Amino acid sequence: MKNTTPAAPAPQAPAPLKKAPSRTEPRPERSTGSRIGELVQRQGVLAVLLTVILIASFVYPTFASLDNARGVTVQASFLAIVALGMTLVIITGGIDLSVGSVFALGGVLAAWASQGGFLAALFVPLVVCGAIGLVNGLLIARANMAPFIVTLATLLAARGMLLAFTDEGATTYLVPKDSAFAELGQGSVWGFGYPILIALALFGAGGLLLQRTSFGQTLFAVGGSSDAATLMGLPVARTKILVYTLSGLLAGLAGALNAARLSSGVTIVGVGMELDAISAVVIGGTLLIGGAGSISGTLWGVLLLAVIQNLINQIGSLNSSYQSVVSGGFLIVVVVAQRYLARSRRTT
Asked: Helix 236-262 to helix 99-113 angle, to the nearest 10 degrees?
């Protein structure tokens, strides 16, 4: 008889794992305080601007006149164009101290080149001022130099070029009367000057660039963390070069428009303009450390500074130096509020 051993049972295939039901984890809701803080940072300056305008209109009837509104907005348009470029720079975590000198240099070059026609009056300052911005960007992005030091150096260099070009301010170049270039600064459509319309168009384009393009998102990423943006494969160096070049171009354009409006290249303009631009940007809600900001906030910040200046002129018993006091007070309040809001967001 054959001794037969029972065959071992065949191994059974493991039972298929049951797929766990997919659950979408609910996102943690932001607290009411965090939402209010974000709203205040974005639109707080607009509320302050509207409040100041409302009070000033009741106290000084001439303040609410259409002529006064046109004058305020024309004066603000040049600073607005400069502050637009400054906004892009600060969002990336940088700073540009050269814009005031570049603004003045652009005006003198435009007045000098206006003898050759409309295109020359715009082309020359844009090329020179854009080149200054390009130098800033290359030194900051490629040589890893501090933005404060680089732009401080170009501030002095641009002012020196201006003085050398005008024989220490002794020569004033005039824009030909009734020329197309003079019309660009002095003409108007429906009562609103061309500089106002140009500034609004640039702010509209800047808002689209910042919010609707990959380049705008790259700006925020670079400002949030340059190292993290590099690891993500974003063109950090190229982005910085572009924003500083744009800042120089916009400062030169604003200077050219100012020269067209004044019919001359005035050498003493632009002193301290970089501080006004930085104040408007920060008051508008853009963080000095970079990574957050808005184009519309900068526009409201510029208008707030212009309204304060006009209100001081309406009072009459105060001189224009009080604008610096008020602007400095606003700046301190805004920076303190930003630090408080940032701290409260980290804790929520």
From this structure: 50
Residue 147 CA: distances (Å) to CA of 129, 141, 175, 219, 337 = 17, 9, 35, 16, 25
Closest CA to 219 of 57, 61, 93: 93
Q: Which two tokens stand for residue 200?
A: 């609004």
Please tell me the distance from the alpha carbon of residue 7 to that of residue 244, in angstroms, as a whole number.
82
How is 30-78 classified by DSSP, letter by letter? PPHHHHHHHHHHHHHHHHHHHHHHHHHHHH-GGGGSHHHHHHHHHHHHH
Q: What is the pTM of this model?
A: 0.84
- Half-sphere exposure at residue 211, Cβ-oriented, CA atoms within 13 angstroms: 10
Segment 254-262 mean pLDDT: 93
pLDDT exceeds 60 at position 310: yes
Give residue-wise pLDDT tens across range 131-170. Answer: 999 999 999 999 989 999 999 999 999 999 999 988 887 8
SS3 (DSSP) at 193: strand
Phi/psi class of residue 52: alpha, beta or left (left: φ > 0; alpha: ψ in -120 to 50)? alpha
Phi-psi map region of 285: left, alpha, beta (phi>0 left; psi -120 to 50 alpha): left
State pLDDT tens for residues 174-200: 888 888 899 998 888 887 889 999 999
Tokens of 314: 């309406």
Contact at 8 Å (CB) between 121 and 253? Answer: no
- Tell me if 305 sits within 8 A of 278, measured CB to CB: no
H-type helices in the chain, by residue range? Answer: 32-59, 66-91, 99-113, 118-141, 147-165, 180-186, 194-212, 214-224, 226-231, 236-262, 273-283, 295-315, 321-347
Whether the per-residue pLDDT at 319 is higher than 70: the answer is no
Q: What is the DSSP letter of 80?
A: H
pLDDT in tens, 79-132: 999 999 999 999 999 999 999 999 999 999 999 999 888 999 999 999 999 999
Burial state string for 198-219 with b = 16 or more CB within 10 A and e = fewer than 16? bbeebbeebbeebeeeeebebb
